[in-house]
Amino acid sequence: MSRTLALTITTPTKVLVEGLDVRAVRAEDESGSFGLLPGHTDFLTVLPASVVRWRTADEVTHYCAQGGGLLTVEGGAKVSIACRQGTLGDDLATLEQEVERLRAAETDVARKARVEQMRLHAHAVRQLMRFLRPDRPGTFGAVGAEAETTDADEVS
Hints:
Number of helices: 2
Strand order of the largest sheet: 1-2-4-5-6
Radius of gyration: 28 Å
Order of helices and strands: EEEEEEEHH
């Protein structure tokens, strides 16, 4: 069993860390914070915007503020993180501020998506109501009404 993990962190546009030998990785998912050591079982989880930490063989801790992504552990020796955005740094306070900015941006995008979804839903309901009204000639609902008056006229 290897005594290190090979850590790789990528974004869609660049590789932030590639195959770096680390002794431990610390991250968080929706269930909370967790640690990874060499020999960890295969693992897959979704990461929200957060700071990922890792400790190298010389016991120095490094950080990456990442904007949500996917973490995988393969064979107990390889940890890969694919994230939307990532910022490397050694100043934890600055990176935590970056994570707050990323979380605020995610919240804003989600809010805008909900507003747009509600707008489209309301528009669809208005369209349905317009086409199904029985009192409007030339609409779907009026076809039945016109048929009834036509049948009545033929009987007379």
